[in-house]
Write a structure and sequence with these properties.
about 575 residues; alpha/beta; 7-stranded mixed β-sheet; 5-stranded parallel β-sheet; 16 helices; about 25% strand; binds flavin-adenine dinucleotide
């Protein structure tokens, strides 16, 4: 396949030459640099490339083009190359208007002219965007190849694991891709044993577990040490933030993650309300940045590995990992977040991963090209997913139990949904049935207001119906509320009847629990899993950072006791 392209578009000949030269200079060895002097020329180039199956990594477009605007061009281009990063080149005077238009045109970034010196004003932003594009493109040199059936749950799990861990991989569908059939025939593997994963060094793994893939691509699946200052359970925004603050302040820190760094936030197609990112950022980008920052400070990230038990052993806090090994620390911080609630419909378990998916498994979006797909849920996560999938699917229908989107969705998302032609919303509608033997073929929905049922053919149902904590493994260890969220600080004391303040049972210290401390001294909790927490990325990050402050106080107090 030809190298992916970067396309520069502006109507000013002199500016276009300078832009192409600067792009060539920094990226010419990895990308083809193309240029166009008008929107029509650019669209013609893009259509030709799409027909030829070529890839476009980035569009850098001037705001004012002859007979058109750069925003219009970027909007049109997004239907041809939805994954390409979109950057608008603007002037200082126009930048204000651009900020208003960011949402509509879904641009990733804007660069203010003059961009010289490019080392300061152009390359850092483009490097960042390209490093976000490369893992998702499957085109990066030496990428892993995954061969399987689109509707096989095992294949879905492997794709999802690679995508969420930012492993560059190329998906080859055995039913559609001649290259997949050729590699499969040469491998000697049975069709029932797919997926087959082929690594750049030629090694093949048949139906590998996520841990086997992780080990092969060099992720750390076992901790290096036996004792740490701080063990963090879960690497969503709260865990990542705590790890950055903890390690940067000298705590020897290890973070254990069951799936992939980023947590729920890593599933978000576009986070638009996190401070400092006016154009929004995808969850995968946030996770990638968080992981890089944590590693910079020396945090050990162990994944995939699940913490299955936790106990206090004298001054140590000990966690057991899913491989049976144990790890001790002065302090454990629990940030395991929440998980999607399952939809209770007969037969749905069988089709999970084969057309029915929980959460925004973004890796599935590519397969929905030209299809009619359905999303269950009416809160922000469902709205984000509908907008993201609308770039690929023919139609996206949101099935919402409530009588209004406004009940659980932010206004900015409602406005975008209303403005998106191929997204439809069916209010007061629930899913009551799913059909299909080995893959989803249709769903049955009920209009609860009219009392009418309909069966609709579809190949994909994405479910976002609220989340709940899975903290059963902490039973008898730390106190939780009736829904399983972990109680911390003042919430532990307020629970006593009659307003009388009481310490948690078993609490023997003179002092009260710190604000984010659980009912066991030295075990803290932050983020979505904490009772009463605000379920937002910024809140998780804030609590993760604040927890480190309390952890220092705890460590200081135990040092004093030892003296
Ligand atoms: C699709 C989607 C879109 C969203 N969009 C937005 C948005 O636009 N703006 C916003 O502010 N918020 C958004 N949210 C909410 C936000 O993502 C969450 O509030 C935030 O991620 C919570 O962070 P956390 O670190 O507490 O937990 P999580 O993000 O849930 O991370 C917990 C991590 O712990 C791991 N884990 C769990 N148990 C264990 C165990 N036993 N051992 C090891 N690891 C474990 C999990 O695998 C997970 O990676 C969105 C959520 C979703 C799902």
């Amino acid at each position: 396949m030809a190298q992916a392209a970067l396309l520069a578009v502006t109507g000013d000949e002199h500016e276009l030459r300078a832009l192409a030269r600067d792009l060539e200079c920094a990226y010419g060895s990895r990308y083809r640099v193309l240029s166009a002097s008008s929107a029509s020329e650019a669209l013609e180039t893009l259509r030709r490339m799409q027909l030829g199956g070529e890839a476009v990594a980035l569009l850098l477009v001037g705001q004012r083009l002859p007979q058109s605007s750069g925003l219009e061009l970027l909007e049109q281009a997004s239907t041809l190359f939805p994954e390409a990063k979109r950057v608008l080149l603007t002037t200082f005077a126009d930048a204000q208007a651009v900020i208003g238009a960011i949402k509509k045109a879904r641009i990733d970034h804007y660069v203010v002219k003059p961009w010289q010196p490019p080392e300061e004003n152009l390359y850092p932003a483009l490097n960042d965007l390209l490093s976000g594009w490369e893992p998702s493109s499957g085109l990066a040199a030496g990428s892993v190849r995954v061969i399987g059936y689109r509707f096989s749950p095992r294949s879905h799990e492997t794709r999802d694991f690679c995508a969420r861990n930012c492993v560059p991989f190329q998906w080859l569908d055995i039913e559609r891709d001649p290259e997949a059939r050729r590699l499969f025939a040469a491998s000697g593997v049975k069709a029932s044993a797919l997926p087959l994963v082929i690594f750049p060094d030629g090694t093949q793994l048949v139906q590998p577990t996520n841990a086997e893939i992780a080990e092969k691509i060099g992720l750390k699946v076992r901790p290096e040490g036996k004792f740490y200052d701080l063990v963090i359970v879960g690497s969503g925004p709260a865990g990542l933030a705590a790890s950055v603050y903890g390690a940067s302040e000298g705590l020897r820190t290890v973070m254990i993650e069951r799936h992939a760094p980023g947590g729920q936030a890593g599933l978000s197609s576009m986070i638009e309300n996190y401070l400092g990112f006016p154009a929004g950022l995808s969850g995968r980008d946030l996770a990638r940045r968080g992981v890089a920052q944590a590693r910079k400070f020396g945090v050990e990230i162990v994944a995939p590995q699940t913490v299955t038990r936790l106990r206090a052993d004298g001054p140590s806090r000990v966690v057991t990992l899913s491989d049976g090994s144990e790890l001790s620390a002065h302090v454990v911080l629990l940030t395991p977040g929440v998980e999607w609630r399952r939809l209770d419909v007969p037969g749905i378990e069988r089709l999970t991963g084969a057309g029915v998916y929980y959460g925004g498994t973004l890796a599935e979006a590519f397969f929905c090209r030209g299809e009619d797909i359905y999303i269950v849920g009416g809160a922000n996560a469902a709205g984000q997913a509908a907008l993201y999938f609308s770039r690929y699917a023919k139609t996206v229908t949101m099935l919402v139990r409530e009588d209004s989107l406004a009940k659980y969705m932010s206004q900015y998302l409602i406005e975008q949904i209303e403005a998106t032609r191929n997204v439809r919303v069916r209010l007061q509608t629930i899913v009551v049935g799913v059909q299909g033997d080995t893959r989803l073929e249709a769903i049955t929905i009920r209009d609860t207001a009219a009392g009418k049922e309909d069966t609709l053919p579809t190949s994909a149902l994405f479910i976002f119906i609220g989340a709940e904590p899975h903290t059963e493994w902490l039973d008898g260890v730390v106190e939780r509320d009736s829904r399983g969220f972990i109680l911390t600080g003042p919430d532990l004391e307020d629970r006593s009847a009659g307003g009388k303040m009481e310490r948690p049972s078993g609490w023997t210290l003179e002092r009260e629990p710190y604000r984010l401390e659980s009912s066991v001294p030295g075990i803290f909790a932050a983020g979505d899993v904490r009772s009463g927490s605000v379920k937002r990325v910024a809140a998780g990050v804030g609590e993760g950072a604040a927890a480190v402050q309390f952890i220092h106080q705890y460590l200081g107090s135990t040092r004093q006791e030892r003296r």
